[in-house]
Amino acid sequence: MAESVKNPDPDPACCRGSAASQERFLQLFLASEREVYRYVSAIAPAKADVEEIMQQTAVELWRKFGEFDLSRPFTPLACRFALNVAKAWLARKRRWQGIIAGDLADRIADRRVELLPEFNSRLRHLDACLQKLPPEQRQLIDGYYFRQQPIEIVAAEAHRTVAAAYKALQRIRLAIENCIEEAERMEAAS
Questions:
Q1: Rounded Cα distance, 14 and 27, in Å
Q2: Residue 139: which of 153, 124, 122 has the closest Cα?
Q3: Is residue 39 part of a domain?
């Protein structure tokens, strides 16, 4: 589960040398990448757009890395940077300009921050529910969702037809949804 990454070494001198700076940046960015990706996904219209914005965000963060206050958490800073990159990207794409009109991108970002505790709770429950899956079901989920393999490969690895793999994934998703909802009910009751 992604949380704000607190920089363990607040000494800016740790990042003055080129190799140390590069290593520190990679540590912080990689620890925050999933959260920043989800943040951008709430704003950008398509996966390819999100990936392009993430690349631009990483480049811009690296360019400004020497100016950051490393005593502060990196993830919120990276998300704010990503928001600015996304807004600039959306402004250049004529068909998506309505998203930034009237500060819609800011409202989406603010709403996402507001919902973050609930989202993190659901992610925690998702992780727990995934751990409960039998190995063959976990293999299907890992292949299709986490490794993003084509269904034909996932089906072949599981020794199933494509139709059977799709049906199994449908049942597994339903079981995971029920597991998460049950965990939320139990958490609310306690």
A1: 13
A2: 153
A3: yes
pLDDT tens digits, one per residue of 18-62: 677 778 888 888 888 988 888 888 877 788 888 999 999 999 998
Q: Is 21 exposed, middle or buried (0-12, 13-18, 19+ CB in 10 A)?
A: middle
When divided into structural domains, the chain yields a total of 2
- The residue behind tokens 């494509």 is 162
> Is residue 7 situated within a structural domain?
yes
Alpha-carbon span 135 to 132, nearest angstrom? 9
Tokens of residue 55, six digits: 């690349």
The domain that holds 109 is classified in CATH as 1.10.1740.10
Asked whether residue 137 falls in the same domain as residue 96, the answer is no
Amino acid at 188: A
The sign of the torsion formed by the CA atoms of 58, 31, 17, 84 equals positive
